[in-house]
Amino acid sequence: MKQGLRNLFAGVAGGVVVLTIFILFGIGDGGSDVFSNDTINRTTVQPEEVSLYRTAYKSIPQDVDFVDAADRTVNAVVHIRTEMLRRTDSYDDFFGSLREYFYGHPHQGRSNKLVGFGSGVILSHDGYIVTNNHVVEGADKIEVTFNDRRVMAAVIVGNDPSTDLALIKVNADDLPFITYGDSDELKVGEWVLAVGNPFNLTSTVTAGIVSAKARNINILGSRSSIESFIQTDAVINRGNSGGALVNTRGELVGINAAIASRTGVYEGYSFAIPVNIVHKVVDDLISFGEIQRGYIGVEIREMTAELAEEAGQSAINGVYIAGISENGGAADAGINAGEVIMSVNGKPVNSMSQLLEAVGQYRPGDDVEVVTSKNDRKRTYTVMLKNLEGNTDIMKREERFFNEELGVTLERLSPSDKKSLGINHGLRVSELGDGIFKRGGIAKGFIVTNINGQNIDSKTELDAALANTRNKSTRVQGMYPNGMRISFEFFD
To answer: How many other CB atoms are there within 10 angstroms of residue 34's CB atom?
Structure first.
């Protein structure tokens, strides 16, 4: 239930993830409060008492032109509107479903429709659109509004919570789209534009510079998450989530994802997902339906003075290897614990975020060149990346699979099945074995649409939803082909 509420609020916000930051001054014993309501003493200053100083700040270069970049991108950024249908409690869900079965119409008394919004970026002429996972997560209906005010329905192709990215698609052709840039080549201090459509009017453009790279702001909540954000000072507010971060050539260099704020609106800190990660995630979802994540096979730690001394390093840089995974790529290549990773495929890594970003651009089976150092002596290894199963197999979205916990064989629905049922996600029970579903009276043909507040459309999504069980309780929602809807809860 808690997970469901979390997803609910994420969808309603629909815009940027807002971080809370605290004022670091004026707190603590004896500290002055800069927001105090005490009387303010004002001193009148005569003009002749004012000293004038020449500013040390440089003005914006007049040769920087954002017009072409904006012109190339505004029509390829869309507004995304989502709807989520929820019932107030499981009792009402169950008897509401029976009411539909016996009387042929849904119970209207206690249902709620929640609306969220965000932005998206068109990546191809035939309608593939990338956005943030938190914009469309849990959505029962997705609607896309283009810059020319056309409105189309969209379906989710796939999503990746570990990078907060999702791919949706509309049935269209000859759409304007943005071409990929290279986030590895992006420099701190470089000008960028943030393009979004937060108000369902037309696309909005703001400008700023790259403030930092490889920022880990701890918002995705998973050890396997890849957080290596581009930080900018371009103005981003609610509804800009999923919008484009582009360079002055109009190339996509990031997907806007979050702001840091204590008020809920922009205060100078914006974060975007690097486009090199976006490109790889999108390719995986289109080609395989699942994310293909490769791992070096090491346990890593951020470098400290103590670890640098332990490794015999004269400088505090790189990423410390605390352990080696058995049968992993690092072990096969001969890498040992206690070494320090300095670069991957020629890209320097000085933090865990940089390492995750560098490796996250490759798949299992890819070879990467890893340079390590110990006692200030460098060594170069060729490491074949592996998946979490310890092999190089490509993980494809399974059309049919068995789930031991539920005791059922499930199969994916075809697009025509989803259209006839009026849903855009779900897994059908094709075989019923001994297990929870059979004991609960669920019959063959039942369609599981939601578990623990998360929509289900693949084996990966099912496994993730079951892993989010709280208090040994799992809530399942679904329907039969005749339209009868069922919601029930079982306990471990």
So the answer is: 9
- Residue 316, CB-side half-sphere exposure with 13 Å CA sphere: 8
What is the residue-wise DSSP string for 158-205?
A: EEETTTTEEEEEES--S---PPB--GGG--TT-EEEEEE--SSSS-EE
Amino acid at 342: M
**What pLDDT does 99 receive?**
40
Q: Which residues contact 350 (CB under 8 A, 6 or more apart)?
A: 303, 317, 318, 319
Active-site amino acid positions? 134, 164, 241
How many whole angstroms separate alpha carbon 275 and alpha carbon 163?
11
What is the model's pLDDT at position 61? 56
Provide the pairing of β-strand 151-160 with 128-132: unpaired
Phi (first) and psi of residue 5, to 5 degrees:
-65, -35
- How far apart are alpha carbons 255 and 78 in whole angstroms? 13
The pair of structure tokens assigned to 383 is 């490491």
Residue 92 backbone class (left: φ over 0; alpha: ψ -120 to 50; beta: rest): alpha
**pLDDT value for 94:** 37
Q: Which domains does the chain have, with CATH numbers?
A: 1-25+63-290 (2.40.10.120), 298-384 (2.30.42.10), 400-491 (2.30.42.10)
Averages of pLDDT over runs of 10 residues in the chain (492 residues) are 47 45 37 34 34 44 79 95 63 38 44 83 96 88 93 91 91 94 94 89 89 78 72 85 94 87 69 94 89 91 94 94 93 95 94 91 94 96 90 73 87 74 87 83 89 86 81 85 85 71
CA proximity to 458, closest of 293, 289, 294, 291:
289
Helix H or strand E encompassing 7: helix 2-13
The dihedral formed by the CA atoms of 416, 421, 422 and 424, expressed in degrees to the nearest 10: -60
Distance separating alpha carbons of residues 37 and 146, to the nearest angstrom: 47
- Look at residue 88 in the predicted model and tell me its pLDDT: 38
Torsion, Cα of 478, 434, 102, 448 (10° steps): 10
